[in-house]
Amino acid sequence: MHPAPLLKDLDPRLNALVMDLIGRVADKWTMTVLEVLAEAGTLRFTRLAEAVPGVSQKMLTQTLRAMQRDGLLLRTVHPVVPPHVDYRLTDLGLSLGEAFCGVWTWAEVHMERVESARTAFDGRG
Amino acid sequence: MHPAPLLKDLDPRLNALVMDLIGRVADKWTMTVLEVLAEAGTLRFTRLAEAVPGVSQKMLTQTLRAMQRDGLLLRTVHPVVPPHVDYRLTDLGLSLGEAFCGVWTWAEVHMERVESARTAFDGRG
DNA sequence: CAGGATCCCGCCAGATACTG
DNA sequence: CAGTATCTGGCGGGATCCTG
């Protein structure tokens, strides 16, 4: 019933590194960019900004830089005027996107249960 | 090649709700508590604090409250002295834990690739 | 034992203005 | 178009002290 490696069985230092990495990639914007690019394939900055609802230009830039640094994303600059920059996922990014897909699906499927749990919890004070 | 529901195909408002929910549950501490409790079954506060490396008492309390409110967690108070409080996952929590399992595994498997990607990126400045 | 309350600092993230 | 630069308020989160 526990096919995955368990927390206490691992080297604590390795564990901390894994947790740090998760802290990095498991945020709303990264997950959304992952989903959008997994679907669209390749997008430029402005299209990406449109496809990620609610993101500010600053956060998008930061997220993209971090993802590029982590090897999740490929950034291609076409030296033309006006500037043209393409973003697409690497194999690594795609694999993470697939891993996150389960979480995304979970959120969609169980959202109502969570909502009603919150209502019940708040009702009791 | 895209079996999952795609972002642009969904109701924007629903989408925002899903993203908010993800923003809530997809953090380091929640994921770790999920992993720990999925493994251990039931734990009391202090054991949990020991099992989640690096967590502060405040963050653990906050995380547990939020998880309880979202219906991921069951909190049982045994009216004895000294106080005895048990935490265990609900079915909903377990299902989220399974969804996150893929992300956790991804982080373990690909950590070295991410590290070297970072080194390469930082090297180029 | 399982937390609540409080203080405080850092950085996160939005808004705005500017540039190659 | 695709960003940088700067300022700023808010709050995330640690440390510490206290309590039923």
Structural commentary:
The structure is a homodimer of 125-residue chains. By secondary structure, chain A is of the alpha+beta class. The first copy, chain A, has a single domain, classed as Winged helix-like DNA-binding domain superfamily/Winged helix DNA-binding domain (Arc Repressor Mutant, subunit A), CATH 1.10.10. Chain A is built from 5 helices and 3 strands, in the order H-H-E-H-H-E-E-H. Chain A has helices at 12-25, 28-40, 45-51, 57-69, 91-124, and strands at 42-44, 73-78, 84-89. Chain A has a 3-stranded antiparallel beta sheet with strand order 1-3-2. In chain A, strand 2 (73-78) and strand 3 (84-89) form a beta hairpin. The two termini of chain A are 36 Å apart. At the A-B interface, helix 1, helix 2 and helix 5 of A face helix 1, helix 2 and helix 5 of B. Chain A binds a DNA duplex (20 and 20 nucleotides) through residues 44-46, 56-59, 61-62, 77, 81-85.
Write a brief structural summary:
2 copies of one chain form a homodimer. Chain A has about 120 residues and is an alpha+beta fold. Chain A is about 65% helix and about 10% strand.
Set down the secondary structure blueprint.
The structure is a homodimer of 125-residue chains.
Chain A: H1 12-25, H2 28-40, E1 42-44, H3 45-51, H4 57-69, E2 73-78, E3 84-89, H5 91-124
Antiparallel strand pairs in A: 1-3, 2-3
Helix pairs in contact in A: 2-5
Chain A binds a DNA duplex (20 and 20 nucleotides) through residues 44-46, 56-59, 61-62, 77, 81-85.
